[in-house]
Amino acid sequence: MRIKGKSLNNGKVRGKALVFDVPFSFIGDMCPDTGTVTMSGHPLFGESLKDKILVIPTSRGGTIAPFIAYHAQKNNVAPTAILCNNADTITLECALTIDIPIMDGFEEDITRLLVSGDELEVNTNNNCIEVFR
Amino acid sequence: MQEVQLTKYEQEMAAGKHGPGLQKAINLLIKYGDACGAERFVEITSAHVMPKEPPELLAQFTEGIEELPVTTTLHPLMAAFSQEKWQDMGIPKDFAEKESSDHEKRQKIHGKLGFIKSYSCLPMHVGNLPRKGDYISWIGSGAQILANSLLGAKTNKDGTVINLCSALTGRALYHGLYLDENRYAKVVIKLADGVVLEGEDDYGALGYFVGGTVMTGNVVFDCIPKKATFDQIKYLIAPVATSGSVNICHIVGITPEAPTVEAALGGKEPEAVLVVTREDLEKTKDLFKYSSEATVDLVLIGCPHVTVEEARQIAKLLEGKKIEEGKRFWLAMSDATYTLVKAMGDAENIEKAGGVFSHTCMAIIPDSPLPENVKVVMTNSFKAAHYVNSLQQGKVKVMIGSLEQCLDSLKLQKRS
């Protein structure tokens, strides 16, 4: 399956999706030392973001989030790409700070089109993601 | 996609002619601007940044830079970490040691480049006073909303990295709140007949209620007395950006873009008029319900930072008294203000009573561990109450009260 979107920072990566049904923030929702999801009570609690493709509806803000994303990348536990329905400015800033591809503007809700564990290739050259199921 | 148009100097920065740090910073801003649809940069006159940069990131982005282009102050230290005061505050040693090492690495770069070590969330009180209409890049939701509202200077609500890049390059993208059409109010705030604002907790409750009710956009308060003090306005405005994400709070007759309601609305009809009642204010206070029965372990004052006038008021209330053994009283204040408060003799009075001054941020304390045995926290700030409550995730109980109630909860005793 191929899904078209809009690239906001370029790159090409392949990896597994981690799909959130609720807005995500690098502050409070993940541990930047271990890369694990810390949203208590959420089904993804305890999952790792390391080398994953982060799929989110949008962000929950937090101006200091780009520093936290950087910290996570230094510890080798950051996601490798971000796909979101609406890239709010803080999520965009996080992706640019750690220079990973980010896309938004998909025709349908990306958090419903994909499920956690999907093998994806994000290629911003053709503004597409390829899903291998 | 719209592309950001660059001046010759901006092209040179992007090409690396002015060093690798500026090259990195301007190119990050350009990508951000392309994605946001900004057409160009403007030169800023003032910056205020967050001293919590990962040290390697700060080193990369400042490589080759010798001097900052504009006045740039530093925000308070996040977490309850102060290199000088952490022991007095009862912060665990392992946490403080880790913070201290990063802090020293940052300080070297900050000092070399001329970042002003203000550690204040009120930059306008420590030598960073932009004028009406200036383009600036400030961090801190309270500082941002005060700059946009009370000063009439224009800042966007960028994150810490875009903000740092703007401080380094002296450039910010022309978009968002820089555009006049995005600065007009859409909602008018009034008080119901007979409602009079009294303590700072009344002002705070009004701001917190309005932020949570209106949520986004800009508002105009048509109900604040002209003689309102800076501190009252501070307690009113800061929580508006806490319970919601309102950008600008015009205040008729007080803030520069609101000589009249009509001017603040840009000549248009308001989308809504919100009439706030005494019941609304009391219900808002009940979110952090005060009880004189509760045993308070820690009182936080200074969110936003304590001013000279407030310190004077606190010193008077503490004259000849001390707080009960085992309780803690923290006051957040810049070192510059502390120097004044000390010169006036008020600092000594407060410290003898058991207060600890620190140039940290009282809202984000939960970023750090609280001292052991702290179960109930009391503050006169809705912003601090909101963050301590949400970030501590129920580990402590948070109560709101007036300054006098906060001090009463410390069970003041006669000082020998």
CATH topology value of the largest domain in chain B: Aconitase, domain 3
Tell me, briefly, the overall form of chain B: globular
Number of helices of chain B: 17
Number of structural domains of chain A: 1
Number of domains of chain B: 3
* Average pLDDT taken over every residue of chain A: 94
Q: What string, H for helix and E for strand, traces the elements of chain A in order?
A: EEEEHEHEHEE
CATH topology of chain A: Glucose Oxidase, domain 1
Q: What's the CATH first level of chain A?
A: Alpha Beta
> In percent terms, what proportion of residues of chain B is strand?
15-25%
Shape of chain A: globular
The oligomeric state is: heterodimer
Distance between the termini of chain B: 71 Å
What is the beta-strand fraction of chain A?
A: 25-35%
Q: How would you describe this structure to a colleague?
A:
- The complex is a heterodimer of chains A (133) and B (416).
- In chain A, helix 1 runs parallel beside helix 2.
- Helices cover 17% and strands 27% of the residues of chain A.
- Chain A has 3 helices and 8 strands.
- Chain B folds into 3 domains: 8-172, 2-Layer Sandwich (Aconitase, domain 3); 184-286, Rossmann fold (3-Layer(aba) Sandwich); 289-414, Aconitase, domain 3 (2-Layer Sandwich), CATH 3.30.499.10.
- In chain B, 39% of the residues lie in helices and 15% in strands.
- Chain B has helices at 8-15, 20-36, 55-62, 86-89, 93-113, 141-151, 160-169, 200-214, 230-237, 240-243, 261-264, 278-286, 308-318, 335-343, 346-352, 382-391, 403-408, and strands at residues 41-43, 46-49, 71-74, 135-138, 154-155, 171-173, 187-191, 218-221, 248-251, 272-276, 298-301, 321-322, 328-332, 355-358, 376-379, 397-400, 413-414.
- In chain B, the strands form 5 sheets. Chain B has a 5-stranded parallel sheet.
- Chain B starts with 7 loop residues before the first helix and ends with a strand.
- The mean pLDDT of chain B is 94.
- Classes of the chains: A alpha/beta (133), B alpha/beta (416).
- The interface between A and B is medium-sized, with 22 and 25 residues.
